[in-house]
Amino acid sequence: MDQVNGSVVTEFVLLGLAQSLGVKFFLLLLFSLFYVGIILGNLFIVFTVIFDSHLHSPMYILLANLSLIDLGLSSTTVPRMISDFFSDCKIISFHSCMIQMFFIHVMGGVEMALLIAMAYDRYIAICRPLHYLTIMSPKMCVLLIVASWVIGVIHAVSQFVFVINLPFCGPNYVGSFYCDIPRIIKLACMNTYRLEFVVIANSGFISMGTFFFLIMSYIFILVTVRKHSSKDLSKAFFTLSAHITVVVLFFTPCMFLYVWPFPTKSLDTFFSIVDFVVTPILNPAIYTLRNRDMKIAMRRLTGQVIHCRK
């Protein structure tokens, strides 16, 4: 790979989150607990949807896929971040850095597409309930999931093909605790202005456009419900509030990281942690605590597991 793009840099040095031993130990404990919560929370949702026949509907199948993507997105950076607390020199090889960047954007692109699919599912369920089973058939559900993965891969490849061929021959200090395209291309030994614009357009403007599209679609759903029945408005808002919260949590860091023209290391690190640590652990809580069917199914699954152990 190094010979292909002419790089002399074989590794990058990542920025640590803390210097003092006490802060390192606190963050190590905190992020380890968060990552365990991410694994257990998201896998619990996946297994609940798989093993409970009452949840074999498009809404919950899409939710289970979202949980898998959240787990995958978090796993691209958090285990590495935790292991780096034990190291004074946080070095990542060129190949590992490229792989990490690629999977970050695959998972991010898939999650973006899944959130659009979930918004479409809620639109059909709330605004066209009589046609829901016909429109959101199992075939359509599978199609939406496959399309989300295709979009995620295209989103990642469309940027990665340019980055992998950049020449790296100078500084190798990455100003973050993980590899990402905006930081890596700044280390290239060439003018990357056009590539930076491609990244902003691909990751930034698409994130911003998708965010406003989703918010407007939820507003449209609420307005449509209000026109037909004001009594159902509060119920629809309660259902959509979980989706809106997840959309805000996912897209706000993305828009800041890829569009904001005046980044600072502190805010950049904060929003990165929100994206990879906070959002993946909050999504299971948001969807389960605000969904009666999920809570009943989880209690039923927990009861079955306890009964089997007896």
Instruction: Give a count of the beta strands, DSSP E runs of length 2 or more.
Output: 3
At the fourth CATH level, what is the homologous superfamily?
A: Rhodopsin 7-helix transmembrane proteins
Using the alpha-carbon principal axes, give the shape. Answer: globular
N-C termini distance: 55 Å
Structural domains: how many: 1
CATH class: Mainly Alpha
Structural class by helix and strand composition: mainly alpha
Rg from C-alpha positions?
Answer: 21 Å
Q: Indicate the low-confidence ranges by residue numbers.
A: none
- Per CATH, the architecture is Up-down Bundle
Q: Which helices and strands, and how do they pair?
A:
Elements: H1 2-5, E1 11-14, H2 21-51, H3 58-75, H4 78-84, E2 91-93, H5 94-127, H6 132-135, H7 138-163, E3 173-174, H8 181-185, H9 193-228, H10 233-259, H11 265-289, H12 292-309
Parallel strand pairs: 1-3
Antiparallel strand pairs: 1-2
Provide an overview of this structure.
The chain is mainly alpha-helical and about 300 residues long. It has one domain (about 1-310): Rhopdopsin 7-helix transmembrane proteins (Up-down Bundle). It contains twelve helices and three strands. It has a three-stranded mixed sheet with strand order 2-1-3. α2 (about 20-50) crosses α12. It is globular. The model has no long low-confidence stretch (mean pLDDT about 85).
Key words describing this protein structure:
310 residues, mainly alpha, Rhopdopsin 7-helix transmembrane proteins, 3-stranded mixed β-sheet, 12 helices, 76% helix
Short summary:
The chain has 310 residues and is mainly α. It has twelve helices and three strands.
